[in-house]
Amino acid sequence: MVILSSWVLARKPKIINPFILEHPLFASLKRTFNCSSTRSGLVLNREEFQTVAQRKLILISLDWTRPKDPPLSLGHASILANLRHHNIDIFPRSWSVNVPTFSPDDVVEFIMMHANPYNDVALGAFVWNEQAIQHILRELKKHKFPGRVILGGPQVSYVKKGIEKYYRYADVYIRGYAENAIVKLMLSKSLFPCIKGVHYFGQPDLGLSAAAELDILPSPFLTKLILPQRFIRWETQRGCPFRCAFCQHRESDVSMKRRQFPMSRVIQEAEWIAKYSNIQDVAVLDPTFNSGPYYLDIMGKLIKEKYRGKLSLQCRIEMIKKEFLDKVVQLNDTAETVLEFGLQTTNPKEQAIINRSNNMKIVEKVLTQVRERNIKIEVSLIFGLPEQTITTFKKSIDFWFNHKVPVIHAFPLMLLRGTPLHEMKAELGLVESYEVASPEIDRVQTNIPHVASPSFTYEEWKEMSKIAESLEISTNNVSKSSNEKHNQFF
Description:
15 helices; TIM Barrel; 20433_t:CDS:1; Rossmann fold; globular
């Protein structure tokens, strides 16, 4: 039996959604040891494990989400879908608990309520929950949690070597996508099976990543783990063909640049999205939607099914083709398509440092084309970049204002693990702090550090933050007006 508790943290009452998962194969498992761990106290008794009837997993999702996000994240749902795909039946417990405040101690208390030598716990580490994860791990160690502590997520996946120095109190580390690795880990007859991408504390760190088998990975939508709701996140591919120095979208295994979900699955998901009228806002997670081989077919399917709602697509502006813009115009007969362009900066020196050069002639050409077709676009910038100044930041904003871009976002630089900027932070003189910039900047959340650079002072960074805040206020007004017009179609 596997116990799952999904904790979703938002700027609203917090939700806890537990699920119970069971599998008959656990009854016959006999524990053997293909790999060993040097974690003191983890291996209780070899004879005990050889007679264990079943093991359990407490799977905790710490997702800091925006208010409109659904209670079950797409990544978490994908793991659940794969457990079901491997004949693990899912029996949802019919309760949810609203909690007015959240503390990591709540998670520790929940875990310890279910603690015994045959229960493991798995957590996902992200930049926004780093401090909470560290607190939970310390407390589990303090309370002598007797099972395996399994850690995954980007904060683990993008550390190529020496992950143990970041998380001293975990026992098992999963790099890369966990959908397949977690299933193998729980269904193995060994307590420490040798699985690619799975590292055990005290063993040589090979830095390998676990790969999700996209061809057979079940859809959380088609398996009804994510139900039709007003807002959903959708992915048609994983990874990215580009190497922007600030970005983690490239898969943690460098051998995998970009991979496409099977077209049959994506087409069925497009039908599912268009079928339910209450799905009115779809954010496609692909970092470069227009880089794959099937994106025109996907657009064609949404057109054929007459999708009615908002569709947000992150696109590489230099790769925009006329055929794609024509599809957007067709889809907009019933829907509202928004193209999101992450240009980050227009300054050549800053572009070179972050490996995000832009062909500005093509950019201007595409801006003219989308304006002629009345296609809605948004542009995002980064402030706090190496070599950036207030003057260059303002010039980037002025460029988009001069080209009549109505929605401009500016987000602070984050030094994400495994990215070239993170590796070069000492060389570039970058320093992180944990002060929050502004509540108006939606992606700035408590405990995410901002980055200081020698090219600007902290006072200048705060001034850039205020400029970014004013852009968000302006954007909210534009979005409100747009939504009022769009709602006339419904």
